[in-house]
């Protein structure tokens, strides 16, 4: 018989697992890893409503995508265009970034799998006599290691030609040049830290769902058990 067990710690672990998976996925897909040096406003960058020139634009560069400004001469305005600069894996600007993409993708796949499984831990707490919380915690730890490897390798690719075109000639491995780090990089770091927190907290979720109070509720014949 299925017993739905909801505790404060298990629910918090589930929510954190979902948040971490989405945060890493969004960061990976974003083009805001590097913020390039400002492009000076030209005569075409004129705000028709105020008559003044617009602020200089900062193009952004991701692992496989970028955002830049394109001009529409017919309408005398400019729009921001975001999308992948690489049509396939081999066209990613740096071998280090290719490795980063692999490690991040592996970590994110594991985190998404754990996030999906975590939803069902309210009803199923073990499989083949193994605690799902402990297994998921182990997987999250492995995912965290993949994410760390990806984030360590990423700055090594700052010396590629693509990065230099955005960050200037002084950009090199682990040196930003005229660029700055975007929100996606910091989100990936924050998600990695939370991944290890989730891995540790999974043990607390397992303890909460197998506590004496839960066993007492089960022995009383309750199918829905909610404990703080």
From TrEMBL:
Query: What is its subcellular localisation?
Result: Membrane
- Report the principal subcellular site: membrane
Q: Which UniProt keywords apply?
A: Fertilization, Membrane, Transmembrane, Transmembrane helix
What residue ranges are annotated as transmembrane?
Answer: 12-35, 96-120, 132-154, 183-203
Q: What cellular component GO annotations does this protein have?
A: membrane
Q: Does the keyword Transmembrane helix apply?
A: yes
Pfam entry (one): L_HMGIC_fpl
Q: Show the PANTHER family listed in the entry.
A: LHFPL TETRASPAN SUBFAMILY MEMBER 2 PROTEIN, LIPOMA HMGIC FUSION PARTNER-LIKE PROTEIN
Q: What is this protein called?
A: LHPL2 protein
Gene behind this protein? Lhfpl2
């Amino acid at each position: 018989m299925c017993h739905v067990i909801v505790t404060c710690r298990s629910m918090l672990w589930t929510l954190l697992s979902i948040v971490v998976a989405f945060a890493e996925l969004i960061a990976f897909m974003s083009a805001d890893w590097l913020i390039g040096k400002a492009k000076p406003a030209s005569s075409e960058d004129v705000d028709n409503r105020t008559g003044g020139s617009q602020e200089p634009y900062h193009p952004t560069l991701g692992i496989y995508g970028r955002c830049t400004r394109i001009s529409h001469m017919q309408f005398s305005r400019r729009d921001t265009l975001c999308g992948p600069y690489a049509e396939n894996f081999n066209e990613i600007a740096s071998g280090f970034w290719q490795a980063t993409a692999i490690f991040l993708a592996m970590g994110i796949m594991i985190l998404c799998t754990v996030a999906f499984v975590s939803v069902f831990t309210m009803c199923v707490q073990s499989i083949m006599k193994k605690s799902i919380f402990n297994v998921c915690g182990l997987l999250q730890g492995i995912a965290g290691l993949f994410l760390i490897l990806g984030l360590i390798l990423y700055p090594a690719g700052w010396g590629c030609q693509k990065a230099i075109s955005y960050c200037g000639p002084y950009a090199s491995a682990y040196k930003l040049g005229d660029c700055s780090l975007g929100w996606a990089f910091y989100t990936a770091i924050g998600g990695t830290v939370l991944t290890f927190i989730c891995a540790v907290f999974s043990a607390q979720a397992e303890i909460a769902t197998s506590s004496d109070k839960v066993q007492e509720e089960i022995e009383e014949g309750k199918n829905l058990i909610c404990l703080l």
